[in-house]
């Protein structure tokens, strides 16, 4: 299946904490960083997820926020360290490509945010993604 979701990060399931309706799934990305997905317990069963299963973490670029340094005091579970590869800007919005160990991530943010943060190729960043915005795919 082809998807429009730009961010498809390969990894391995490291933990599953299942509740009655929702589950929290830990994934070690191929580059070594960890990401957490909050998905339905039905999805865990339907995908036959188990520890050690190969998955792809899927995240829409509009759900990736960027910070220029470590951020404390947030409920956002996923904080992936990377480096800006490139910035494409339009009149209002920008697309920022970020290199992660073992992959790439794209963030769609406002042009004003790019300017305010001084983002340019080589800038270190932290990609912030809520666990509820991470989907998982197998196969």
Task: Walk me through the topology.
Layout (H helix, E strand, L loop, with lengths): L6 E12 L3 E8 L4 E7 H6 L7 E6 L5 E3 L10 E12 L3 E8 L2 E8 H7 L6 E6 L5 E3 L2
Antiparallel strand pairs: 1-2, 1-4, 2-3, 4-10, 5-9, 6-7, 6-9, 7-8
Q: How would you describe this structure to a colleague?
A:
This protein is mainly beta. It is 9% helix and 53% strand. Strand 1 and strand 2 form a beta hairpin. The chain is elongated, with a radius of gyration of 15 Å. The termini are close together.
Shape: elongated
Instruction: State the total count of DSSP E strands.
Output: 10
Tell me the quaternary state: single chain
Strand fraction = over 45%
* Low-confidence runs: none
Determine the mean pLDDT: 96
- What series of H and E elements makes up the topology? EEEHEEEEEHEE
Query: Largest sheet, described in full?
Result: 5 strands, antiparallel
> Using only CA atoms, what is the Rg?
15 Å
SS content category: mainly beta
* Largest sheet strand order: 3-2-1-4-10
Percent in helix: under 10%
Give the N-to-C terminal Cα separation. Answer: 10 Å
What's the number of helices? 2
